[in-house]
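Preprotein translocase subunit SecB: structure tokens wanted.
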Amino acid sequence: MKPIDKLVMKRKVFSDDLIIHSQTIKSLVYFDLPEKDFDISQCDLSFNILRHKENERDFKVQLFLQLEMFKIIVEGHYEVSDKIDKDQSNKIIEIAGLTTLIPFLRHSILNVTSGTKEGGIHLPLINLNNLIKNQMEENKSKPKPKKKTDPKTKSSTKSKKPE
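Answer:
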């Protein structure tokens, strides 16, 4: 992956290269299990990047963190400025959404757990390169949906998971 161009995000203090529309907690589950220690380093952490179909600069990032007793999903809605060219825009989408949403996840976990017996859990530092690499490997290993032929029309359709 090539580095982001030096002109991008070079502003002195604030940057308008990435617009933050929202950052929210989408789902939160916490069980108080007195016999279990809250070991955040043993969590599963994954993410999705969702691109808008018509506006390729508009995207959402979802972070999923799960333990036996704790599960949180946070989502950020972002947009890359029109001033940024398409190649740089794609690089910003790959990295900036995650780097912007991780501190929100960290703060959300601390706020939620501050009133519990743990007294506030701090999410450890995250190796972003490894997170992305692991997610890419996991996505490659997932089976792709098979196309099925509809006997009525004899056209191929994507298989759907039951809801």
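Residues 86-113 form the longest helix (28 residues). The CA atoms of residues 44 and 66 lie 5 Å apart.

Cheers.
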